[in-house]
Structures are given as C-alpha cells and as structure tokens.
UniProtKB/TrEMBL annotation, chain A:
One Pfam family recorded for the sequence: ETF
Keyword Electron transport attached: yes
Protein name: Electron transfer flavoprotein subunit beta
UniProt xrefs under PROSITE patterns: ETF_BETA (PS01065)
Lineage: Bacteria, Pseudomonadati, Pseudomonadota, Alphaproteobacteria, Rhodospirillales
SUPFAM superfamilies: Adenine nucleotide alpha hydrolases-like
One biological process term in Gene Ontology: carboxylic acid catabolic process
Gene Ontology molecular function: any one: electron transfer activity
Family of this protein: Belongs to the ETF beta-subunit/FixA family.
TrEMBL record, chain B:
Phylogenetic classification of the source organism: Bacteria, Pseudomonadati, Pseudomonadota, Alphaproteobacteria, Rhodospirillales
Function: Involved in the assimilation of dimethylsulphoniopropionate (DMSP), an important compound in the fixation of carbon in marine phytoplankton, by mediating the conversion of 3-(methylthio)propanoyl-CoA (MMPA-CoA) to 3-(methylthio)acryloyl-CoA (MTA-CoA).
Gene source species: Dongia mobilis
EC number of the protein: 1.3.99.41
Acetyl-CoA dehydrogenase-like C-terminal domain span: 473-591
Annotated catalysed reactions: 3-(methylsulfanyl)propanoyl-CoA + oxidized [electron-transfer flavoprotein] + H(+) = 3-(methylsulfanyl)acryloyl-CoA + reduced [electron-transfer flavoprotein]
UniProt protein name: 3-methylmercaptopropionyl-CoA dehydrogenase
Highest taxon listed in the record's lineage: Bacteria
C-alpha cells in the first residue's frame, strides 16, 4: 500500500509570532519555519507503517513557495521515499489545498492519505475533511491509534469529547492525526544524508488543473488585546454584587 | 534552571558568512555532500537532540553521578538510553571515514555539533569524544586488520574507546610510564600495570570497550622514546568480530571528583590483558599525539560549549531578576524594581561573556575549517599551509577557550548572585564541569610551553608566519576604510605588541629557557586576544556591510559586541605585554625553600 503524507511549512512553534505593521498578516520574513507538528506525527505514522511492512512507499507532499522543498526534505530525512512539491506563491486556503491534494491523489492512487488534524498557524482543521469529501473516501479524524487490517479495512481510534471512539474504515481513506498518535523520531544523520538523494517532483497548480485563488478575504490581522489589570474586592458580598451588576454573569 | 537553546543563528553566521563553508563542497571534492541545505538540516537536528535529550539529563546526572560496584560502572539514570538514541541517530559517524561506515562530513561541522553537545551535557559528551580520539589513532596507525575489526564498531558507536595514558606517578611526563608489555608466542602481548583517570574506562553503554594503552616493551629504551601503543579490548573479539573472552582489564574504582560527575573516571588494572601493538614499537607517543592534537581542539570546544551555556543562563536571569533601580532612574516604573540587566556592572559581565564567546567560536571554527583543508584539500601545498596554522593555533584554542569557559561560568554564577551558588539553578555545575577542561589533554600551562617551545621555533617561525602574514595583510588592506578604524586600530596595536613579544621570547628564550617559560602563559593569552581581535574585525566588517537588512537586530548586536571587545577586552594585551616583558627574575629569584 502506498501512503501519501501531506506536510505543511509553518512558523516554528517556539517563535513568538508578530503581526505585520500594516495588519495584512503575520511576519514570516527571517522567521524560523518548521514542519507543522501534526504533520510530523503524520510522517512518523507513515514511516512506522512502512517499518511494520504495512506500507510499501511513502510520498510526502507539500504545497507552497520554493522553501517548502525544505519541509519535504525533513519528511524524507524521517523516512519518506520521495516528495512532490506543488509550487505556488499564492496564499493557499484549505479548499484550494484539498483540491490540489485530490489532484495529486488521483495521480498517485495511494491506499491511505495522512494529514495533521490542523496546522498550528491558521488552526483551520478543514483540509482533511474537505479532501475526503472531494475524493468520496471515508475519513477518520483526530486519530490516536491506527490498525491496518488484512481485509482492506482499518480500525482508527479517535479522540472525541469525553473519550475514545474506534471506527472501522475501508481503504482507501483519509486520516488526520492527533497529538497522542505517536512521538515523532529524531531524524538520523545517515537519513539526513540520504534525503538529499531522494527525488522531489515539482508540479504547479496549472498542471494539476486547479485554480488555487483564495476564496476568503482577510480584512485585518491584529494582536490580541493586552490583558487589563484586575481589581481587588473587599468581601464576598462585593464580589457577588460586581458579578451580578457589573459583569452581569450571575 | 535556564533552558539551553542551540545558538544556530550564531553558528550559521560563522559557518556561512565568516568562513563561507557553503563553498567547501566546490573547494574539496571529498566534501561534495556537505552542501548548505544538508549542513543546515544536520545542525537543526543535532540542536534539537541536544536541547531535548541531553540537556534535561545534565543536572540530574550531576546530582546522581556514576555508581561503582565490584568492577562494573552504572551511569546515571537516562544516560544509557540517551546514548542508544545518540548512536541510533548515527551522530558518532559524522566526521568518520566512509570506508568504515562514516558520513565523511567536515570536522568543522562536527565542531559545531560538539559545541552544542558540550553546552547541553559535558559529561555525556566525554563518551563519544573519547571514542572519536580512539578512532583517529587506530585510523592513522592501526594495521588493516585492526582497522577492519575496530573502526566500524567505533564509527557506529556500538563499541566505545578510551585513551589510557596517565599512571599514578606520571601525567604530563609520560616518559615515566611503567605499564609493561610481555610478548605472547602468537605475536600479541600481555599488559601489566595500572592506569588512572581513564575517562569512559568502564560504563554500561555498550557491549565492548576498546582501550588504547601506552606501555613499554621488554627491550624498550628508557624515557619517552621507549613507549609503545597497544589496543586492548575489554572483550576479545571472536572469529566473527563479536565480543568473546573477557580480557583481564578491570576497573578498580572510579574517582570522586569536582565536576563532570556523570562521566566515569576509572582506575584501570591490566593484569596480563591481551593486547596488540598499534604502529611501530617504541613509537607510541607520536601515534598518541595524532589523537591528542584533535582531542585538544575538542577540549577547546568543551570550553566554548560551557561558556555559551553560562551566557544563555546569565542573560535569562539578568532579564528576569528585579532588584534595585537603574542608577539613572527607574526604567520599569510599573514594576517593583528594575531587572538587573540595566546595571553597568551586570552588562560588563554579560558582554564579557558574550564578546569573548563569539570570538572564540569564530576562532575555533576557523581552525576547524583549516583542519579539514589540511587533510582534504586537493592541493598539497594548501594542505601544508593549513596544517601549519592548525598546529600553531591548537594550544591557543585549547587553553584560551577552556580558560574562558571557566571564567564565563564564574561570571554566570556572579550574575545569579546567591542563587548562582545554589545547586538547583545549575550555574555552579558549569563552574565545576568547566574546571577540568583547563587541566586534561595537557594543562593550559603545558599548552603555553607547546606554543612557545615547540610551535614558534618550528621551521624558524614558519608556523607563526601562517598567522602573522594574513593578519598583517588584513590590517594593511582594511586600515584605509574609515568605518573600520574603530576596530582595526586597536587590532594593529595589539598585533604590534604580539610581534614584539614574539621576537623578544625568541631571543631571550634562546639565551635563558626560563625566560620563555616565564612568559609562556601570558604570551599565549596575548596571542589569543589578538587572534580574537582579528576574528572580531572580520565579523564586524560583515555585520556593517549587512546592517541595512537586519530585521532581527542580529548585525547591530554584532557591531555592539565588537565595539565592546575592542574597547574593553582587547586592551588587556597591554598589561599582558608589560608583565611578560618584565622577565623571569622576579619569578625565579626566590629559593624553593623560601616558599
């Protein structure tokens, strides 16, 4: 079974994100970028499937500007076999990403597509679901455990409100990863060296027949308001009074 | 305890902007794979490993220390697993020969990785560090059979190595070595004797440990010319190369010591342990020096690593700690007090740490770069030039970087005040860990004698010219640039002092060796500070040229650090010069019994 993993390049989790002075977005110039942590988990799961003999080939796909190739290299260093880079400088929104991924899936015909449940930059949590709908494939989101069965199905344990839910899906299917699915490995030095020699195919949205133009318009990006100083109350009665009459919450 | 962050921006600046290491693959065909993007990925991943795996073990490792029980040594909790992850990641193979499973990457890149390991956990770094020294010696002097047997295991880290030199009565003067080798009929030898201070002599990381041992053959001439080098495995490899019979080389005890407590420092008893000669009989010292020279540079990196860790810790605290108001009035009136970073004296400490640490990094990596050229440049003359420079600067890198590591760790404690003295904060550990680096692999006093007595006279000053000529050329070319005047003029002054001191030592030392001996340590420091001045000029030149594209203020900070170095650190060369020119009289006049 071929596994396709989608990996997104985002601002590194340790960077303090700054809003651009003109309010059009966040500052990404000279900012450390990394693979989205949920996508690392997706890549790790694919590599584990391959090590367990369940997957035969891992294809890592990333969409975006030229530097996304570095993110694909990171996936290759973790153990993916080859990469596909859909190159575009257009701002990509979840629907465009889902459409582009569908076009790649149509070409590659994998048995499983693994994505992060969301990216830590826009927290949209939409792409996996949209992709599954466009493909007409089953989806298993927020996965914390994956078992591939021999009869063309898989059992996926999902993290849902109040507990865990296990669903059975038919392959091919789309899975999105949650935090507890696995702990991504450190890329080994020999694999970093090997990653250099693994192929990355470059494609464009035009070649895939997809128009990636944004459908949503960003009006304004601002910093969250600074936290205001609190006040001290003298007694419980005063607190109750303020909650009732000023805050109007009780 | 402050969290260490791998200083990748700083490392990149030195590698890519100062040394232009991205061009190494074109310059040296052996390094075709060491392209910029690969090096970047390696540094990122190594940094992550050091921050997330090695650093969290540093303080608990110091608290727990190693355990000894009847010949076996148990390392502190978590170390064994960390080592397993380390070799799984293939990190031991980085600078090694591809013929034995290595990645064949530049030693320069390994320097950067070593710096990060030493910042995160100096004790841990000892184990792979010793193995690498052992690997270098067998690679250079071992027979083909020995190389095939041991190198692949040392490269993949499944076996570790040691260097067994010191004995109870001989440290610096190895000519006094008593361990003896007796011949076996099959061409191997039996070793008898006791070695002490053997780092990584016994531990629980690997299934086998390969000792390299200095010992005397029965017919050996007395003194340093009668020492031979032997390889002595803990378990003698069987026909398949697997660990077989247990060899009678046994750990007698481990030392209780000031620092690097998670590194096992062993007494090793050789009770007829089977061993094999490495290289030629009686040529053990020169074989040992192959690994000693690289090891000395590696110890320099330990000093750098500690200095960086101390600086990071001190800055974090100086920003957080609220105490008193700025002398010129409150800077943060809304807070109960100002952070101590507003105070001139705290800034003096921070900038001293920072400007010397960054200068040390530039100097050490520059020498690392030439170490690679000396071994791999296609042009033999270039190889020789680089080799000369490395030989000259090795004692300086070892001594100055470790002196600075200790000094910076001390300043780190001072910035923390009382909390610096409390174990929980982790700053006093840096002082204790750093202290050994000024001693082992040749004390810093011995480094100074090596510089003055061995390196300066070589080829009537040939080695020295490899440094003096480029600096003189640089000063001449750069002194015309008005924006560089603030930096080049102090460099030129210090350089003139260094030249004058060099000439004086050559002359006075010839007439009276005690003059050279008395001047050596101050001269070594004068040399190092001047070399750092040279590195700072080159760095500030780059920073000035790029100051218009400086969103994160990186280049502006470089310029400010350079100004501090030139104004408040480099002038120490004046007092060093005065002191060393005072001669040996006041040192040697007092009779020993009057002390």
């Amino acid at each position: 079974m071929k596994v396709l993993v989608a990996v997104k390049r985002v601002i590194d989790a340790n960077v303090k994100v700054r809003v651009k002075a003109d309010g059009t977005g966040v500052e990404t110039q000279n900012v450390k970028m990394s693979m989205n942590p949920f996508c690392e988990i997706a890549t790790e799961e694919a590599v584990r499937l391959k090590e367990a003999g369940k997957a035969t080939e891992i294809v890592a796909v990333s969409l975006g500007n030229a530097q996304c190739a570095e993110t694909i290299r990171t996936a290759l260093a973790m153990g993916a076999d080859r990469g596909i880079h859909v190159q575009t400088d257009v701002e990509l929104q979840p629907l465009a990403v889902a459409k582009l991924l569908k076009a790649v899936v149509d070409k590659e015909q994998p048995g499983l597509v693994i994505l992060g449940k969301q990216a830590i930059d826009d927290d949209a949590n939409q792409t996996g679901q949209m992709l599954s709908a466009l493909l007409g494939w089953p989806q298993a989101t927020y996965a914390s455990k994956l078992v591939i069965n021999d009869n063309g199905t898989a059992n996926v344990t999902r993290e849902v409100d109040g507990g865990l839910e296990t669903v059975e899906v038919k392959t091919p299917f789309v899975m999105t990863t949650d935090l507890r699915l696995n702990e991504p490995r450190y890329a080994s030095l020999p694999n970093i060296m090997k990653a250099k020699k693994k192929p990355i195919d470059a494609l464009t949205p035009e070649q895939l027949g997809v128009d990636p133009a944004p459908r949503l318009k960003t009006l304004k990006v601002t910093e969250p308001p600074k936290r205001q100083a609190g006040i001290k109350v003298g007694s419980v009665a005063e607190l109750v009074d303020k909650l009732k009459n000023e805050a109007k919450v009780i | 305890m402050p969290a260490y962050k791998a200083p990748l921006r700083e490392i990149r600046f030195v590698l890519n902007e100062l040394l232009e290491a991205e061009k190494l693959p074109e310059l040296v065909p052996d390094f075709a794979d060491a392209t910029g993007d690969t090096v970047e990925a390696i540094l990122e991943e190594a940094g992550k490993f050091c921050e997330e795996v090695l650093q969290p073990l540093n303080h608990p490792g110091d608290e727990e220390g190693c355990h000894f029980d009847n010949g076996t040594v148990t390392t502190p909790k978590g170390f064994r697993e960390a080592y397993a992850t380390f070799i799984e990641g293939g990190w031991t193979s980085l600078p090694c020969d591809p013929a034995y499973g290595g990645q064949g990457l530049p030693k320069l890149i390994n320097f950067a990785v070593e710096e990060m390991i030493c910042s995160a956990n100096l004790s841990f770094g000892m184990y792979p560090g010793l193995s690498n020294g052992n690997y270098n010696a067998i690679h250079a002097h071992g027979s083909d059979e020995q190389k095939a047997l041991y190198l692949p295991k040392l490269v993949d880290g499944s076996w570790t190595g040691t260097m067994c030199l010191t004995e109870p009565h001989c440290g610096t003067d190895l000519g006094l070595c008593k361990t003896r080798a007796e011949a076996n009929p099959d061409g191997s030898y039996r070793l008898y004797g006791t070695k002490i201070f053997i780092s990584a002599g016994e531990h629980d990381f690997t299934e086998n440990i390969i000792h390299l041992v200095l010992a005397r053959l029965p017919d050996a001439p007395a003194g340093i010319r009668g020492i031979s080098l032997f390889v002595c495995p803990k378990f003698i490899p069987d026909a398949d190369g697997k660990p077989g019979t247990r060899n009678p080389v046994v750990c007698g005890s481990i030392e209780k010591k000031m620092g690097i407590k998670a590194s096992s420092t062993c007494v090793m008893n050789f009770d007829g342990a089977q061993a094999w000669l490495v290289g030629k009989p009686h040529k053990g010292m020169s074989a040992m020096f192959t690994m000693m020279n690289t090891a000395r540079l590696a110890v320099g990196m330990q000093g750098l690593g500690i200095a960086e860790a101390a600086y990071q810790g001190a800055v974090t605290y100086a920003r957080d700690r609220l105490q008193m108001r700025a002398l010129t009035g409150a800077k943060f009136p809304e807070k109960p007090a100002d952070p101590i970073i507003v105070h001139p004296d705290v800034r003096r400490m921070l900038l001293t740490m920072r400007s010397i640490t960054e200068g040390c990094r530039a100097l050490a990596y520059w020498i690392g770069y030439h170490l690679d050229l000396s071994q791999h440049h296609p042009d033999i003359e270039k190889r020789q030039e680089s080799d000369d420079l490395v030989a000259l600067m090795t004692p300086i890198v070892k001594a100055f970087l470790t002196d600075h590591g200790f000094h910076a760790a001390n300043l780190g404690v001072q910035v923390y005040g009382g909390h610096g003295y409390i174990r929980e904060w982790g700053m006093e550990q840096l002082v204790r860990d750093a202290r050994i680096t000024q001693i082992y692999e040749g004390t810093n006093g011995i480094q100074a004698l090596d510089l003055v007595g061995r390196k300066l006279p070589t080829g009537t000053g040939r080695l020295a010219r490899r440094f003096f000529h480029p600096v003189a050329d640089y000063i001449e070319q750069t002194s015309e640039k008005p924006e560089m005047a603030e930096y080049v003029l102090p460099l030129a002054k210090a350089f003139a002092k260094l030249q004058q001191a060099t000439a004086w030592i050559a002359q006075a030392g010839l007439a009276n060796p005690n003059e050279a001996g008395a001047a050596a340590t101050d001269y070594q420091r004068l040399f190092a500070l001047t070399a750092l001045g040279f590195m700072w000029c080159r760095m500030v030149e780059i920073a000035l040229a790029r100051k218009d594209d400086d969103r994160d203020g990186f280049y502006a900070a470089k310029v400010q650090s350079a100004r501090f170095y030139m104004a408040r650190i480099l002038p120490e060369t004046n007092s060093l010069f005065t002191i060393l020119m005072a001669g040996s009289d006041s040192l040697m006049a007092m009779p020993a019994e009057s002390f």
